[in-house]
Amino acid sequence: MSTPGETETRRERFLIYVVVGATVVALMVLGLIFWNAGSSNREAQDKADQLIAALDKAGAHNTPDKDQVVRVLGDDGGATCVDPNASLNKAILLSLLANGAGGPGARPVIADSRVVKGQALIIGIYCPDQLTDFTKFVGDLKTADVASD
User: How far is 22 from 114, CA to CA, in rounded Å?
Assistant: First the structure.
């Protein structure tokens, strides 16, 4: 078996590298221009206030800072509201309600009844149309008061 010899000139290879490099840099610049981590507008501020008040009312000991809530959830709920009732999102939630082992040692556990309250509060404030299905799903989970304050 033989290896074919190089047929492109050094100039042609350099030109390809320059074009590919310029394309990558241009795409990175466009990505930075259009990237939006969470809209910080009046609606986002109001919803963050609502969420923090709801968390306080629910008895949360450490509520997040308003700026943190705005950056993470924006005015639309961020990743939390991207179809929270989809099968994959439910599977991710259920995997978090396990004993933490990997492979054959993984077992579901009876989670604390407060474990999904925060997510339900977020869904209720940022995407209330999804709340009914989510509450039905978590209502079917076996929970108990197992964690101490």
Answer: 51
